[in-house]
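Section 5.1 Outputs to date
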Amino acid sequence: MQTEKFEFQAEMRQLMHLIIHSLYTHKEVFLREVISNSSDALNKLRVEKAKGESSIASPDLPLQIKIEADKDKKQLVISDTGIGMTKEELVNRLGMIAGSGTREFLQAAAENKGKMDANLIGQFGVGFYAVFMVAERVTVDSRPANPDEKAHTWISDGEGEFTVVESAKQDRGTTITLTLREDDLEFADDMRIKQIIKKYSNFVDFPIVVGDDQENNVGALWHRPKEEVTEEEWNEFYKFVSSDYREPLDRLLISIEGRVNFKAVVFIPAEAPPALYRLEDRKSLHLYTNRVFIQDDATEILPEYLSFVKGIVDTEDLPLNVSREVTQNSPIMVKMRELLTTKILGHLKSMLNKDREKYTAFFQQFGGLFKTGLNSEFTHRDKMLDLLMYETQHSEPGQLQTLQEIIDSSPEDQDQIVYVTAESRKAALQDPYIEAFDKKGWTVVLLTDPVDAFTTTQIGEYKEYKVVAAEHATLAEHEVSEEQTQELEGVVAKFKAVLGEEVADVQLGTSLVSAAVSLKVAPDGMDRRMEQMMKAMDKNFTGGQRVLEINPDHPLIVTIKDALNNDEQNGTIDALIQQLYLMSRLNDGNFDRVGETVSGITELLTASIASK
């Protein structure tokens, strides 16, 4: 039989090196990851059998995971009777295709200077490679469930290469043999293996056999009476379904009987995972039908903005051989989605009212993803708006308030919810448009979460309060009089003549206090924060033109007005107007003309000194 040699992809080599040489804490999690992969393979096989569409190799084999430890050989062997892998799958999945999870794991390691807790490895989708923390050599012998496919063996020491050769394996499934390092021979002990299984894999859906004994509890925890399930069991179950080593922040048990029948266990994690916004790897609730696992990524069962939750849904109303196409278009799934969404939003509202500290912790971790639903959710939009939280200029950093609380704490004459968008609290407080409202005592919402530019700015109205950007909001006492408009008509015309097409328009401002001028978004333009993010993603993105607002009461504007009235037409006025515009660009976050701005300031200062 011919042996083929392959090199790991570059990113895979980096991953291997990091795992072998840097991950020392919680090495035991390698077994959790291997068992999890075996469970996935068994689930896929069970679904194939339920479909009954094709023949299965070794059809009488029991669906189980078997573990054998051999101290004399310094080996640990984990076998399953699952779907198995073809030669191509062995080559691609275990060495050639580095996924986004690989890159994110490496990036996270770099940010932590190579110090990573091995507990995290499963959250990046690279859990199999944890075996190289403890093994100096790994052999994966696999026979696919398709009886027409041959068995093959994958072998590697994790140092850059792997080989694949045809195998004589007769039974369907995968056998992983770890030749353990001298420092890790504890994992060749049956008692140690049993301890790890109890800790991490007690709720795997298939028997895990060590020696002659089954070590896990195969059974649907959610069908047991609630009073019989301990807090520890729920927490361990959460860790199993989420690949998270921490305990959950909160838990919700749901039982529905009626037009649809299902039970659900929903967990809210304590911390957001690294790939929270990565749609292609998003997994939320596991789907079961009559206690039989169907999917671990039933994305259709919840809206994307709630996909941070983990857990299971078990229904009696779907067939065992349900396909992804059926789940996507099933009226049963639509109804389950509606009921689950209602229950989860109701639970969040209850948490907000009864345990403010816990709700705040939730929103700080998942509020960004939750807010993305504002652009797509219409049925539950009002419930979502009640759950939003923000900082204001009057709150302490990190102190969040609901929109209702912001309204209640605002002055009686404040008839709008005014906001500014910025990349940080400090930048928001320096926004030139916040000053007039702050001086009046009005509350201004500080939108510093990147998703706010895409979501919160689209709220429009909340309980008859218009939600308005500070640059577009108005105060009666700041309205420009007809007299001022006439007096400054020449100034506006001069600004337009000097700036030309640099700006979309020049207007007299209504909300500026200490700033002479400021750029604001046109009524139909893109939010400033959103535009900055678009530029960061696409260097060729130019954005729209801004409207330049002039503060009619500012001394510099008065000086320009007097100079024009006295017919003092000289280059200094033009230079001053150009400089005011460039400085407003800087304040708007456009740093592409810094050199020109500094040069212009220097020239103006030189001219000022020369005139004395």
